[in-house]
Design brief:
single chain; alpha/beta; Elongation Factor Tu (Ef-tu), domain 3; Rossmann fold; 4 helices; 18% helix; OxRdtase_FAD/NAD-bd; Riboflavin_synthase-like_b-brl; Cbr1-like_FAD-bd_dom; oxidoreductase activity; FAD-binding FR-type domain-containing protein
Length: 240
């Protein structure tokens, strides 16, 4: 995987699908129309124009095989410019964005163990990465821990299950920090459960809440994971 990152540019398109994955999370499909050729690497993001002067960053949650359509996944639980704008969009509405941006991508060399630690919509850029790993037919052992506040926040689990059937060395775990009495899975934060099997042969990918990302990076360094094998993206919660 030799990366020549595309230069971010202004693109224009329209909404082709809008889906509530749960009552807090929207998945938005956008078709890029002008210029026609939009390309990205799994893990990158776009900056969506949410009013005349302001853009908001959202990771691309779809794979390159769906181009010129791209998907973004975002939480709309709070009142903010980005979430309110996306909630107001309808099928066929014009949109504009700048992209692709970011360097949160799979490295050229994959180690024996790949550990993904994400919270909430930090799962979005991991979805196309998993598709990329499937296409690469990697022999790496891949483990994903996803943290949500409660069961109602879970999304795209059917996709993760399909990855388990396609990637023989892939397994995922959902961790709920505020579970109901019915929840039988991991209870707590993802930082309570993940383990490093082989420090020298593990690469770590972290995405989501900035505090979680910072905490995990520091823990991994203390465990002996070299910073060159830690890849991360922090999701910033913008105010109004």
């Amino acid at each position: 995987m030799a990366y020549v990152f595309p230069r971010p540019a202004q693109y224009y398109g329209k909404v082709v699908k809008k889906e509530y994955l749960n009552n807090k999370t929207i998945k938005l499909d956008i078709v890029s129309e002008k210029p026609e050729k939009f390309f990205f690497f799994p893990g990158q993001f776009i900056n969506l124009k949410v009013n005349q002067f302001i853009y908001r960053p959202y990771s691309i949650a779809s794979y390159i095989d769906r181009l010129p359509i791209i998907s973004i996944i975002l939480t709309v639980a709070h009142e903010g410019l980005g979430s309110n704008y996306v909630k107001s969009l309808n099928i066929g509405d014009p949109v504009s964005f700048i992209g692709p941006s970011g360097r949160f991508v799979l490295p050229d060399e994959l180690y024996k163990y790949l550990l993904f630690l994400v919270t909430g919509t930090g799962l979005a850029p991991i979805l196309p990465m998993l598709q990329q790993l499937t296409e690469l037919k990697t022999n790496s052992e891949i483990e994903l821990y996803v943290g949500f506040r409660n069961e109602d926040d879970i999304f795209e689990e059917s996709f993760l299950k399909s990855c388990e059937s396609k990637l023989k060395n892939f397994k995922y775990h959902i961790c709920i920090s505020q579970p109901s009495q019915k929840w039988a899975g991991f209870q707590g934060r993802i930082t309570d459960f993940y383990k490093i099997i082989d420090i020298e042969n593990t690469q770590c990918f972290i995405c989501g809440n900035p505090e979680m990302v910072t905490e995990v990076i520091e823990r991994l360094k203390l465990m002996g994971i070299n910073k060159t094998r830690i890849f991360h993206e922090k999701f910033v919660l913008f105010g109004k």
